[in-house]
Amino acid sequence: ETLEQGGFTHVNSNSPYFDTLTLTVPSGTSAGDLVKEAAQSDINIVLVDDNTIGISLDETTTKADLDNLVQVLTNGSVSISSDGLVESTFGEFERKSAFMEHPVFNTHHSETKMMRYLTSLERKDITLRDSMIPLGSCTMKLNAAAELMPVSWPEFANIHPFAPLYQTQGYIEMIESLNAWLASLTGFAAVSTQPNSGATGEYAGLLCIKAYHEANGESHRNVCIIPTSAHGTNPASAVMAGMKVVGVKNESNGDISLNDLREKVSKHKDNLAAFMITYPSTYGAFENHVKEIIEIIHENGGQVYMDGANMNAQLGICSPGSIGADVCHLNLHKTFAIPHGGGGPGVGSIGVARHLAPFLPGHAVVPVSGEGDNVKVKENGQIAAAPFGSAGILPIPWMYINMCGGEGLLASSRTAILNANYMATRLDKYYKILFRNENRMCAHEFILDLSHLKDHGLSEDDVAKRLADYGFHAPTMSWPVHGTIMIEPTESECKAECDRLVDALITIHGEIQDVIDGKVGVNDSPLHNAPHTSEMVTAAEWKFPYSRETGAFPAKWLKENKFWPTVSRVDNVYGDRNLVCSCPTVEELME
């Protein structure tokens, strides 16, 4: 209302608004000049067009901020009166029903209480604070405190994605140096940080390939060949990019079938756009014929997209570019130490060869190009809302790479591979390990075949739930092969921690063997009844034939440091198909 008194007109003034106002400036006033004048007073507003500006406010905006804003926009001709602040109305969108009535919103009234509540939630989750998280293909490595500290600095945390570039030179310098390092590590010419997930990186990379073919007058190239072992996001990204997916078989040792590949390439060579390959493969193995595969694709006019999910096995040893790939996404939230899980945050940076660099994502609001050789600043092709993606967490990989240096990164990959092979070698006597090479070696992760357990009334679920009694998060289950678990220790774990998990799995193997040999019935096995909670162990009645110690303390070291599962066994299938709410009932809330 005050700005209207100063000659501004609120666009769509009859419609409800939330936190943003779009205003037509007074006649004879330049919107661009107002934006510049506001910036000189440390206020950023949006230039919509020559006659229109945009203003966004939030809960941190004070009356002093509003006074300064009005002063700048009206040159002091009007001011906000003491009673000028009015309550906003949302018309038909205004909430009439009660909200935030759950006790959690009305119980913790001090920082002490809130701290204890958050700690109680924290104790329900197994984290790296407790033990290794051996999720295959997830690279759950240490997120060091020194790497995380800069994320909270206001210079990074409080920058708007559309802030004028002249105000963010330090930020840009950090992004440019990070991308230069990533380009060197991948052997590519240029890198863009705009994709904010691995799947988005896949999509962005395929769009680069698609744009490249279109620029060469070959827009008909729309076939993307993908191995059956690929991440599920690979075919999904290809379809989103407008490509037709053709599958290629894998051999029994996990390698891509060269015969099937040649057949599919020959059939689709006139329309071949891309081939997607994960290296090392999703089976945890270095593809024996990777360079030959890439040559086959290139000879038939296609481009090679390398999925960088397993880049933690390549650092300093090899690179996508040196192998011959044309584009590769990097999960900075895996290989380069950004914490991840629970849906985010993530960064799926893509690196590209020189001929694809002009097709890296641009941005409509802040024209960008990616960083490196042969890039082209543009306003189109964006695949994320912000020009630099999840820029607020880029200080983490910057710190990780800077502190490790080249030798440290090489040591990381070597140690990750060493840990995986050490564990696989120890477990070889007890479990069938899939997809190792002729030297019985794996890459940075390995797969235990548990498919035979179903013949004895058990499954990989039982092994995963039993591991909870040992204080371990379950490995990746039934992917990429059904009835298996996949283990990735990363370089963050020492030999003692690798041994702890191996020892737990060896003991579990003994419990499996007891069932197979008929010494113990399935229902009487601790495997079938795991995990064992503190409530079960301290109950007056213990209904199992084995001791409480066997159930809850199957290893001696658990008596010194025990993580207690919050809940006992649940019905996985029922839980997946039915929403179960733990909220208070309506009747309880009424009381």
Task: Using brief descriptors, characterize the structure shown.
35% helix, 591 residues, globular, single chain, alpha+beta
Describe the fold and architecture.
The chain is of the alpha+beta class. The chain is built from 20 helices and 16 strands. The chain has helices at residues 2-5, 31-40, 63-74, 111-122, 145-148, 154-157, 169-186, 198-215, 233-240, 258-268, 290-299, 320-323, 395-427, 460-469, 495-516, 526-529, 534-538, 548-552, 572-577, 586-590; strands spanning 9-10, 20-24, 46-49, 52-56, 190-192, 223-227, 244-248, 272-278, 303-308, 327-330, 350-352, 371-372, 432-434, 446-449, 476-477, 484-487. It is globular.
Note the topology:
Blueprint: H1 2-5, E1 9-10, E2 20-24, H2 31-40, E3 46-49, E4 52-56, H3 63-74, H4 111-122, H5 145-148, H6 154-157, H7 169-186, E5 190-192, H8 198-215, E6 223-227, H9 233-240, E7 244-248, H10 258-268, E8 272-278, H11 290-299, E9 303-308, H12 320-323, E10 327-330, E11 350-352, E12 371-372, H13 395-427, E13 432-434, E14 446-449, H14 460-469, E15 476-477, E16 484-487, H15 495-516, H16 526-529, H17 534-538, H18 548-552, H19 572-577, H20 586-590
Parallel strand pairs: 6-7, 6-8, 8-9, 9-10
Antiparallel strand pairs: 1-2, 2-4, 3-4, 5-11, 5-12, 10-11, 13-14, 14-16, 15-16
